């Protein structure tokens, strides 16, 4: 099953998502990147109904890019989160709603700090210090409650993330085996190997 | 023959000019002066009121609203104050549009509209009126004094053609040439909001036609950031506050004070 985690630390944000693409009970591939870079300092993981997820993620990606081209500055993470939430809320009230859950995180260059937002298909939005989607959330949140430190260094943050992933691998019946991890800070986005 | 190319906005003259736009700008250079100065920790705006007189009822300006008299300085959004020069009726419709645009941005993005974006929104509309047939351009220039987290304090000017530009200190309306050369002489890059207030009032007193400065002729506003909440704080002065400010800056004449008291 799909899992995604994210947490903020001192001046950075870590985002992780599993890499399985499944249909019914069959694993189609295990190296799919489900984290989109929306702008030089903005990351989004997407999970939910296959097809919906990619369609909506690309819709968001293109619109955020358009804003950046049209206007003078890229959207700040909080503004992007509000816009995405509204898109989902409007979609929910249409005839064919998207069934997509998101974790949106980024580094705000204007105020010099990282932000993380938890968004679900019902149009719920909340800013959080750490977040998770999928069955893995039931294991990861309690661990993050215990071990998350907003002032931790990147190494400590990655160690906390590893705890979550290991626990999910150990206890969840249908646990994914591989994860993609990305970090965003003042210098931009980069991939990280756990 | 001179009338051939200025009856419609959309027609170029053979020299490649749009006369209606130039006439609109001419109208503005007779309007009340509006002056803005950008400081390191704030932006200051001042405006000269044209509609005055003993019989004018200013009671609404004294009690309600955000301050000012509702002629020249308006709160466009919680982070932007606008100063208008030109046709008041046109200005009212632009102010209304600006407020809607700012609220629309707040609704979709849950943040105050960046200052330059608001100026762009208004300029898009102003430009439209220079191109579509049968329409008259807006006879209004605006100064935008604002704050946003991208570029902190900012001062912009937009004119009837839809051009806009950012300034450290500028002036629109009557005598804007004199005021601008005065500002050019006296402006320093590290000016604080306290000195900027003084600079604005001094320049205003030199460029205004009337000899005495007072709340019946002047509107005044300052945009700063509240040190406690870290949010922009827009203050448009009420008439009594303007008089108090002028007194503390030593710009009211002594004999006027005696007259007012008696």
TrEMBL record, chain A:
Family named by the database record:
Belongs to the peptidase T1B family.
List the lineage, top down: Eukaryota, Fungi, Dikarya, Basidiomycota, Agaricomycotina
Where do the TM regions start and end?
none
Q: Name one Pfam family in it.
A: Proteasome
Question: What PROSITE patterns is this protein classified in?
Answer: PROTEASOME_BETA_1, PROTEASOME_BETA_2
Write down the superkingdom of origin: Eukaryota
- Protein name per its UniProtKB record: Proteasome subunit beta
Q: Which InterPro entries match?
A: Ntn_hydrolases_N, Proteasome_beta2, Proteasome_bsu_CS, Proteasome_sua/b, Proteasome_suB-type
Record keywords, A-Z = Cytoplasm, Nucleus, Proteasome
Q: Which GO terms describe its biological process?
A: proteasomal protein catabolic process
The UniProt function text for this chain reads: Component of the proteasome, a multicatalytic proteinase complex which is characterized by its ability to cleave peptides with Arg, Phe, Tyr, Leu, and Glu adjacent to the leaving group at neutral or slightly basic pH. The proteasome has an ATP-dependent proteolytic activity.
Record bears the keyword Cell cycle = no
Q: SUPFAM superfamilies this protein is in? A: N-terminal nucleophile aminohydrolases (Ntn hydrolases)
Instruction: Fill in the subunit field for this protein.
Output: Component of the proteasome complex. The 26S proteasome consists of a 20S proteasome core and two 19S regulatory subunits. The 20S proteasome core is composed of 28 subunits that are arranged in four stacked rings, resulting in a barrel-shaped structure. The two end rings are each formed by seven alpha subunits, and the two central rings are each formed by seven beta subunits. The catalytic chamber with the active sites is on the inside of the barrel.
Query: Where found?
Result: Cytoplasm; Nucleus
Q: Give yes or no: UniProt keyword Nucleus.
A: yes
Q: What GO cellular component term, any one, is given?
A: nucleus
Cross-referenced CDD domains, in alphabetical order?
A: proteasome_beta_type_2 (cd03758)
TrEMBL record, chain B:
Specify the signal sequence span.
Answer: none
What compartments host this protein? Cytoplasm; Nucleus
Q: In its keyword annotation, does this UniProt entry include Transferase? A: no
One Pfam short name: Proteasome
Keyword terms of this UniProt record: Cytoplasm, Nucleus, Proteasome
* Record keyword DNA-binding present: no
In the UniProt record, which is one GO cellular component term? nucleus
All copies of the Proteasome alpha-type subunits domain together span 5-27
Task: Please give the CDD domains that the UniProt record associates with this protein.
Answer: proteasome_alpha_type_4
Do you know which SMART domains this protein is assigned to?
Proteasome_A_N (SM00948)
Q: Which InterPro entries match?
A: Ntn_hydrolases_N, Proteasome_alpha, Proteasome_alpha-type, Proteasome_asu_N, Proteasome_sua/b
Q: Name one GO biological process term.
A: ubiquitin-dependent protein catabolic process
Q: Which domain of life does the UniProt lineage start with?
A: Eukaryota
- Where is it predominantly found? cytoplasm
Subunit structure, per the record?
The 26S proteasome consists of a 20S proteasome core and two 19S regulatory subunits.
What does it do? Answer: The proteasome is a multicatalytic proteinase complex which is characterized by its ability to cleave peptides with Arg, Phe, Tyr, Leu, and Glu adjacent to the leaving group at neutral or slightly basic pH. The proteasome has an ATP-dependent proteolytic activity.
Family of this protein: Belongs to the peptidase T1A family.
What is the designated name of this protein?
A: Proteasome subunit alpha type
Q: Native species of this protein?
A: Crepidotus variabilis
């Amino acid at each position: 099953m799909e899992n995604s985690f994210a947490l903020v630390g001192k001046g950075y944000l870590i985002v992780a998502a599993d890499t399985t693409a499944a249909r019914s009970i069959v694993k189609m591939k295990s190296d799919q990147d489900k984290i989109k870079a929306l702008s030089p300092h903005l990351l989004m993981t997407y999970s939910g109904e296959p097809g919906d997820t990619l369609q909506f993620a690309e819709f968001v990606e293109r619109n955020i890019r358009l804003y950046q081209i049209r206007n003078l500055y890229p959207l700040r993470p909080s503004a992007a989160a509000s816009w995405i939430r509204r898109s989902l809320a409007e979609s929910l009230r249409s005839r064919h709603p998207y069934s997509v859950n998101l974790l949106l995180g980024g580094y705000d260059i204007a105020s010099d700090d990282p932000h993380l937002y938890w968004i679900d298909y019902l149009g719920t939005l909340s800013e959080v210090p750490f977040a998770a989607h999928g069955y893995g959330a039931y294991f990861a949140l309690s661990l993050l409650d215990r071990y998350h430190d907003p002032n931790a260094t990147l190494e400590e943050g990655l160690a906390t993330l590893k705890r979550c992933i290991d626990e999910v691998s150990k206890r969840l019946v249908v646990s994914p085996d591989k994860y993609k991890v990305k970090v965003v800070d003042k210098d931009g986005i980069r991939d990280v190997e756990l | 023959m001179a009338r051939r190319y200025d009856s419609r906005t959309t027609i170029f003259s053979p020299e490649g000019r749009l006369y209606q736009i130039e006439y609109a700008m001419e109208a503005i250079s007779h309007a009340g002066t509006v002056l803005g100065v950008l400081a390191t920790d704030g932006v200051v705006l001042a405006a000269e009121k044209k509609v005055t007189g003993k019989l004018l009822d200013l009671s609404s300006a004294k009690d309600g609203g955000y301050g000012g008299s509702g002629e020249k300085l308006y709160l466009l959004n919680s982070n932007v104050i606008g100063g208008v020069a030109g046709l008041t009726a046109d200005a009212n419709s632009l102010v209304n549009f600006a407020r809607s645009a700012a609220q629309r941005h707040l609704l979709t993005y849950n943040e105050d509209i960046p200052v330059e974006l608001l100026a762009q929104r208004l300029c898009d509309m102003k430009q439209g009126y220079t191109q579509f047939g049968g329409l008259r351009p807006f006879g209004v220039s605006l100064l935008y004094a604002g704050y946003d987290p991208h570029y902190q304090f900012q001062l912009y000017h937009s004119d009837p053609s839809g051009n806009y530009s950012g300034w450290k200190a500028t002036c629109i309306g009557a005598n804007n040439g004199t005021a601008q050369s005065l500002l050019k002489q006296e402006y320093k890059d590290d000016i604080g909001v306290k000195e900027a207030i003084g600079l604005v009032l001094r320049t205003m007193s030199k460029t205004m036609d009337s000899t005495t400065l007072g709340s019946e002729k002047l509107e005044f506003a300052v945009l700063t950031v509240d040190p406690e909440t870290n949010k922009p704080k827009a203050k448009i002065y009420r008439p009594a506050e303007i008089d108090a400010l002028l007194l503390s800056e030593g710009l009211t004449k002594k004999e006027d004070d005696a007259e007012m008291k008696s």
